Amino acid sequence: MEQHYGGQEFPAFPDGSRFLALEIMPDGDFAFHPPHLYLPAPMQQIERMMHRAGIDGLSDAHMLLDYHDLPEKVAEALHLKFLRGSEIPELNRMCQAIEPLQRADREKLNAVVQLAEPQNAYEICQLVENLDQFDFVPYVQTPEEYGRYMIQKSGRFEFDENLDSFYNYKQYGEQQLQLEDGQFNKYGYVAYHGTMSLEELMTEDPTEKYQREQGHQMGGLC
User: What predicted TM-score, i.e. pTM, was given to this entire model?
Assistant: First the structure.
């Protein structure tokens, strides 16, 4: 028999609404198990948990990953294991952005992360908040399958099944691949169609950039 409850914190357990469970590693000794921080969470709750663990600020905190329920490629991109407290705000913001996504959008996010290759939680969060700037077709793996999807199911064309043998799906798929600079991966086909480069999208807020550019243009007219 092993006692898991130390009279202060319950042991970690997934509840279906949290993506990360982190063990807080304070300087003091805990007789049982270290306290846990669950993300996403309000910042006031995070700060309160830090205070209860005897930690004055996020920069003084060290954390170990207990479990996660993040999309596969998101977890791989973050290399989650040992975390610094200074990373918590961006990890929390990322989890908050992912939380409302439905299953289909989380699969799309996996494909987008594999395409964009983000390096941290901030860049992943930027991708989550701009998922609408990516096209995603699940399951397709070849130019011919993509061409078939575009002609038959995308809604861009009036498909006549009586002319099926006359459609060159492969050629059309290859043509679209060249135009869109997309990628096939284990999740399907994904392509970026935004006006900014992927690097800019991940490192800068598109709305703020647009407002700044508009401001420069207005300033030039004065």
Answer: 0.79
